[in-house]
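[Q] Does anyone have a clean structure-token version of this?
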Amino acid sequence: MRPSGRQLNEPRKVSIETGVTMHAEGSCLIKVGNTHVLCTATLEDRAPSFLKGTGLGWVTAEYGMLPRATNSRTKREAAIGKQSGRTQEIQRLIGRSLRAGIDRSALGERQIVVDCDVIQADGGTRCASITGGWVALRLAVNKLMKAGLIVSDPIVDHVAAISCGIYGGQAVCDLDYAEDSEAGVDGNFILTGRGKLCEVQMSAEGATFTRDQMNQLMDLAEAGVAELVAAQKAALA
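[A] Here you go.
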């Protein structure tokens, strides 16, 4: 039995509320169980300097957690004076994942910055950030198109992410913190709406795993991401 009482293949309940901030070109609040992330997308007229003259655009991301997003207070990284390695790794993952669903030539020489701020954490914050970040990105691109600033839609597919792992010797979908902290194997799976892989992160946390177990986790992830994509579509309808 999972701590939450969910079935092995049952993801957490997902809700996505759009237009939650008045200033950002795209925004949403995504709730994946008790993990809540505010995602905003900002349009910038210029691409980074390394892309000058290429005709290519860029999508990047920043990630952070509020001090009481977790069970005990975490110091703000701004107060410490530097980002942790974990934060840098996660925001690079979010940026890579979102770029996988973008035609950068259609975007033109401009940048979209997606900010993902964790309000409440209960496992899977990077996956929720990617799933919600894509919705904020979609809304920002819609504004570009409505203003006639781009000719064709640069978004080629949905992008969403889910965690799966081996907990209590069994493959389970969408780990919350209670499972993630005890999992023998932990994996993050980022896929497109058509089921193509953007990235897979898998590691043995307490035990090695077999090829068959990896395939089981991949099957769970594909089904879980399909549900997340459906939630994205419903939020944008």
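[Q] Thanks! Anything notable?
[A] The two ends are 36 Å apart (CA to CA).
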